[in-house]
Amino acid sequence: MACEEYCFETRLLHNKHKMDAATGAVSVPIQHASTFHQFDIDQFGKFDYARSLNPTREALEDVISELEGGVKGFAFSSGMAAISTAFLLLSAGDHVVITEDVYGGTYRMITQVLTRFGIEHTFIDMTDLDQVKHAIKPNTKAFYVETPSNPLLKVTDIQAVSQLAKEVNALTFVDNTILTPALQKPLELGADVVLHSATKFLSGHSDVVAGLAVVKDEGLAGRLAFLQNSFGAVLGVQDAWLVLRGLKTLHVRLDQSQKSAFTIAQFLQSQPLVEKVYYPGFENHPQYDILQSQANGAGAVLSFELADEAAVRSFVSNVKIPVFAVSLGAVESILSYPAKMSHAAMPQAEREKRGIKNSLLRLSVGLENSDDLMKDFSQALEQINQKRLVFERGE
Ligand SMILES: *Cc1c(COP(=O)(O)O)cnc(C)c1O
């Protein structure tokens, strides 16, 4: 595909912060100063106090803004800090239409914190545009989309939801953590605010917690800058540097992990002990066409169901290569148990309503050899089989 000026992978490296203007350093300098001397009592410089702005964080904010096609980026101390600060764009009495299988932390924020401040919400299946329309109220001020969603990998039509939002003068927020701007650009599809847990694919090495936001409208940029400074949940400079370093390899990491994810998803699909595989790269995925039209790939996260919780317990205790952990988007494959990890903040009844069963596992595919991973999964599945046989024979 033709790119305007430079393609994405080139822009990861050749951007405004490719080198330090003062020294030619090819890595962004880490500026630890919390405050900056002012040379003129009437005219302060660009930097005055590091919560408001500092050069290292600014470099990351510039880079993510360019990659997402926005006008301004913002770096926060975590994905949840980015999401929570973006929610502060709302006021008491406002209403949010939100995707039902949203990240557990976002669920907690909207149900247990924002409600105390008089911000209402309606959870819906965002893949159904009729439900989206019916959820709109006179006070709807925001639509909150996560696509593909976590952990069921449902795909929402960003353009269609943004269009509905515009018709009622509401903002569209998109959590782009799972696909990243390497594969999906929500601002180009009509969204107003893109949010990230940069803890995941953007940094990619399980060594930093960070969040980002990007907007494409100058007015909104001003409001979010004010909130970032007021709330103060900014990203530290060491962490900003780690995200900048991780970003340089985003394209190759995601490309490789995505290839393996497709192979592994197919492999799991062919296993009799795997009841169901959720992967938006499958042609029979219910929203395959929407994904194809709005993203350049299906990403490296998939989920699968085993027979029951006992099978999950056996699989998890026998699998050797992936780490069994919270999180996703790292160089190492991460196997998670949504019911007890990412979605533990959601009561079981709410989880089950959303199809997040106790027999569901999520896999974020890393950079290991995919044959090694499949061999490992085979042996772990085999052990479930053996347990079953022992059980059936009544031993
Ligand atoms: C991890 C995650 C978050 C929260 O980010 P933190 O960096 O952990 O605060 C939000 N959304 C999605 C989709 C995530 O995976």
From TrEMBL:
Lyase in keyword set: yes
* InterPro entries tied to this protein: Cys/Met-Metab_PyrdxlP-dep_enz, Cys_met_metab_PP, PyrdxlP-dep_Trfase, PyrdxlP-dep_Trfase_major, PyrdxlP-dep_Trfase_small
- Cofactor(s) of this protein: pyridoxal 5'-phosphate
Gene3D superfamilies noted in UniProt: Aspartate Aminotransferase, domain 1 (3.90.1150.10), Type I PLP-dependent aspartate aminotransferase-like (Major domain) (3.40.640.10)
Kind of enzyme, top EC level? lyase
Q: Name one Pfam family in it.
A: Cys_Met_Meta_PP
Could you give a GO molecular-function term held by this entry? cysteine-S-conjugate beta-lyase activity
EC numbers on record: 4.4.1.13
Could you list this entry's UniProt keywords, alphabetically sorted. Amino-acid biosynthesis, Lyase, Methionine biosynthesis, Pyridoxal phosphate
What family does this belong to? Belongs to the trans-sulfuration enzymes family.
This protein is called: cysteine-S-conjugate beta-lyase
Q: Which organism is it from?
A: Neobacillus rhizosphaerae
